[in-house]
Amino acid sequence: MATAFSAAKFSTQPFHLNPTSTTSHDSPLVFANPTSQFLGSTRKLHLTSSSKFNLTRRSGTVVAVSDVVKQKKSKSAPTLLITKEEGLELYEDMILGRAFEDMCAQMYYRGKMFGFVHLYNGQEAVSTGFIKLLKQQDSVVSTYRDHVHALSKGVPARAVMSELFGKTTGCCRGQGGSMHMFSREHNVLGGFAFIGEGIPVATGAAFTSKYKREVLKEADCDHVTLAFFGDGTCNNGQFFECLNMAALWKLPIVFVVENNLWAIGMSHLRATSDPQIYKKGPAFGMPGIHVDGMDVLKVREVAKEAIGRARRGEGPTLVECETYRFRGHSLADPDELRDPAEKAHYAARDPITALKKYLIENSLASEAELKAIDKKIDEVVEDAVEFADESPVPARSQLLENVFADPKGFGIGPDGRYRCEDPKFTEGTAHV
Amino acid sequence: MAAIFQGVGAAAALSSLPSNSFDSNKSVFSPRRSFSVRKGASFAVVRSDGTVNLNPKGRRTQQLIPNAVATKADSAAASSSSKPGHELLLFEALLEGLEEEMERDPRVCVMGEDVGHYGGSYKVTKGLAKKFGDLRVLDTPIAENSFTGMGIGAAMTGLRPVVEGMNMGFLLLAFNQISNNCGMLHYTSGGQFTIPIVIRGPGGVGRQLGAEHSQRLESYFQSIPGIQMVACSTPYNAKGLMKAAIRSENPVILFEHVLLYNLKERIPDEDYICNLEEAEMVRPGEHVTILTYSRMRYHVMQAAKTLVNKGYDPEVIDIRSLKPFDLYTIGNSVKKTHRVLIVEECMRTGGIGASLTAAITENFNDYLDAPIVCLSSQDVPTPYAGTLEEVTVVQPAQIVTAVEQLCQ
Question: What average pLDDT does the segment A83-91 reach?
């Protein structure tokens, strides 16, 4: 199968897709006649004899998304993938992600936030495509590029912006920062600075879901966990160890690879012996899917299937979303290594532009409605900045809070009392 | 003048060791020998009162010097209580504690290598998989970093996992998860997620297990913020600490010792826990405070017998809580005796003893009549050869010498 992943193509030329592939990258979303044009990956994937999406425990099948969706499509008549409400929801979420990240960049350069800030511009289709299908009790685990995952999951923009400003009203009281977005209410389990270390945590959350169903007998517990991580992480041991365990115990988890082709300055092809990440799923006994991550509707179709599998107790799925980040790795990255032609190519496939086009061309929404959403989001983001600006910084007394869930963990002082009973403890001046 | 002794001690100390070689086939139970506990064919049962029975088939029984330890036990130590209690070995005490907590709370689960069908490499989880099922007592693949992380994720989402490191040394592979996630997520999430996980396993220098299986990880983990570390040393405190650790909302690392699993003691029948932050008074005394934990407690008690015979009155405290230190119990002792000897199995550099020395100096410097003496293991990888291994760790004779020097 010829793919654009061959090293020769990447290292010497700007990225371009397999010329034999169909239309997806020209018009990112297919809408006219679904049975004749395949939806999903532009890559021709290796098809096994069984083109259905079912698997035995041992072997995983790499399927073409096209087949899955084609089957579904042929059963039902509608030509559209989404309703108007859904379309507007998706649009709004992606606009929120984009506007928020753009504002972060502005605020960073104005000295309102510091440290390492990793922006998600360009990858919105993955977050929106997956997370908008989840329930509140489902969990999301991310990496340091987590602002938009948190927003998609429902964490208010105000809480995220405050966190970035280091204010006490932030979702983590200012203690986490850009790379540690957590929300108990919305089940966002982080936000991790080291790549790969969130994947076992996600596996644990999926384990809890299975445990609740099978040991605690909460029969309706079908919570799913999504683990988001990048191409660089897929060379890390924790990735493989967790693929193994998740498949072994059929945990309700979806491993979502946001393959944006670059790990800071390391091209995926220079780091990976076999760059086709989706192929690694079947090696562990789960399906491996590749999808165009710049196309929110395709991502959503794949996500439905993968999340459905997990909910039904059929086990994990590995989904590789081919996507791209329009900005550098972080705001500190000069982004000099990436070929401008590659960047231009992907900029032309901006997921937001694509969805907008789809909505308008399919009369799901008017320009005016979409502009109204743009405006609304602008206001939300402005409000978030204002709120963050006006919020207080953490007081000294917050320093020692939350180190331990049970502050007796600070131990017994020389006077026989627990240190946390020392009045100076809350002032943050106690010596521990 | 007090000197800080190395693990081997001054030449004088070394030459005072008995010349019988370390040969596990011979009688191991000479008066100065530390308790020798082995698994397998020559199964030895060591009672915590000092008597030793070799091999239940009754090959040899030797009575050690009668226990000169004052029989005052802590208020909670039950052997003299009115209820009959029951006798068991340390690993059984851990098992009992774990089983009771699993019965009490269905969210408590176990994860680790060979904890299920195999019953645990040191039998601490024996029978639990049959009783509670394969999901509650989960046999994991060999992936410490990931299954520890999985335990952390499970803890964040409502379960109370007990993660076993088959040997504490293996947890070096889980350092990423233990340091970054276990210790820190409660804080970085602004208090939203608790991580009530227990990470436990055997460590310490065993019987010629080689360098990598003889590690003392308490010194590596002690700086991690947000965790507690405790070390058990008797069946009584093993069960109590296990239960307390499981019930705690904080992540707790419970250090067991490979050589102590077969200690026998009578423990109470009723439910009890041992406070995670408290130290244990083993033997009250007046002349010198000896702070120790885990296996070294027994070397200290061995030395204590000799010291008592020589007219000294050492106060022995098993610190139990390695992080945080119980500065109240320790402080009261220092204020009474004015002399401190720390006996630990960690390496000289950066060990628990080093931290404890600093903590005591900071808090109780005015009460000290002499510099603190810390006896630690040598800063060497534990050699395989028995003779070398023996001198890597602190031996009772060195403790005796140190006290004599300290009390001059």
Answer: 95
Q: Provide mean pLDDT across the span B146-159.
A: 97
Q: What is the pLDDT of residues A272-302, one digit of tens each?
A: 999 999 999 999 999 999 999 999 999 999 9
- Nearest-10 Cα torsion for B115, B117, B119, B125: 60
Alpha helices in B48-163 (DSSP H): 90-104, 128-132, 144-156
A353 with A122: CB under 8 angstroms?
no
Q: Is A176–B147 a contact, with Cβ atoms under 8 angstroms apart?
A: no
Say how far apart CA A154 and CA A186 lie, in whole Å.
Answer: 6
List pLDDT tens digits, range A324-377: 999 999 998 988 889 999 999 999 999 999 999 999 999 999 999 999 999 999
Average pLDDT score over chain A: 85
Strand-pair partners of A227:
A141, A255
Judging contacts by C-beta atoms under 8 Å, the chain B residues touching residue A208 are 153-154, 157-159
CA distance A121 to A297: 18
Q: What distance in Å separates the CA atoms of residue A3 and residue A259, rounded to the nearest whole number?
A: 15
Tokens found for residue A204: 């644990």
- Rounded to two decimals, the ipTM of the complex is 0.83
Structural contact between residues A279 and A288, judged by C-beta atoms closer than 8 angstroms:
yes
d(CA A306, CA A55): 13
Annotated active-site positions of B, please?
144, 213
Rounded to two decimals, the pTM is: 0.82
Rounded distance between C-alpha atoms, residue A300 and residue A415, angstroms? 60
CB contact under 8 A, A202 and B153: yes
Question: A247 CA to chain B: closest CA distance, Å?
Answer: 12
Cα–Cα distance for residue pair A301/A310, rounded to 1 Å: 15
Question: How far is A166 from chain B, CA to nearest CA, in Å?
Answer: 12
B161-192 residues labelled b (16+ CB within 10 A) or e (exposed): bbbbbbbbbbbbbbbbbbbbbbbbbbbbbbbb
Amino acid in the structure at residue B132: F
Chain B residues near residue A183 by CB distance under 8 angstroms? 192
Taking an 8 Å cut-off on Cβ atoms, the answer to whether B152 and A184 are in contact is no
In one-letter notation, the amino acid at residue A112 is K
- Residues in chain B within 8 Å Cβ distance of A248: 141
Minimal C-alpha gap between A171 and chain B (Å): 7
CA–CA distance, B17 with B33 (Å, rounded to integer): 10
Segments of B149-285 assigned E as strands: 160-164, 198-203, 228-231, 252-257, 263-267, 280-283
Please name the residues between 206 and 265 in chain A that touch chain B, using a CB distance below 8 Å. Answer: 206-212, 214-216, 237-238, 241-242, 244-245, 248
- The two tokens of residue A272 are 């990976």
Say yes or no for a CB contact (<8 Å) between A172 and B190: yes
